[in-house]
Amino acid sequence: MLLKKGASIWNIVIILSAWAVVKVPMLVNEVKFLGLKFMVVRWILTIISILVMAYIVSLIVKRENIPFEMKVDNKDINSINIKEQYCIGCGLCTRLYPDIFVTNDGKASLIKGKIEKDTNLDILEIVEKCPVKAIQLS
Ligand code: SF4
What we know:
By secondary structure, the protein is mostly helical. The protein is built from five helices and four strands, in the order H-H-H-E-H-E-E-H-E. Strand 2 and strand 3 form a beta hairpin.
C-alpha cells in the first residue's frame, strides 16, 4: 500500500521500523522495570538506528528491486492530489502530461479533478517523477 501511494524506500523503512519497535506500552514497562534513564537512552538510540538503517536501505534497495507489481490499476485510484505547499513549479508534470496538469503562478494543478478511469496513464510514473513528491494518490 505504501509503495502504491508513492512512499519512498526511506519512508517505508522508517514507518515499518517505528511500528515494530517504538510502542508506548513497551516504553511504560521499560520505565517501570528498568528506569527512565534506560528507556530514554534506548529510545534515542533506537530512533537514530532506524534513521541510519533507512538511509542505508534506501541507498541499496531501489523500488525496482522490490518484487511487487508496481503498476497500479487506475480503477483503484480515486484521484490525484497536488500538495501545493510542496510544489516548486518545475513544470515536469505539465510537460509529461499536458492533458492533466497545468502550471499557474508557479504551481501545478490538475486540469481535471479526477483521472478518467479508463485512461492509460501510468500513475506511478507521475508520482515518482515529481522531484518533491508533491503529487499524491488517494
Ligand atoms: S512535477 Fe511536482 S514540483 Fe514539478 S510542477 Fe509538477 S507537482 Fe510541481
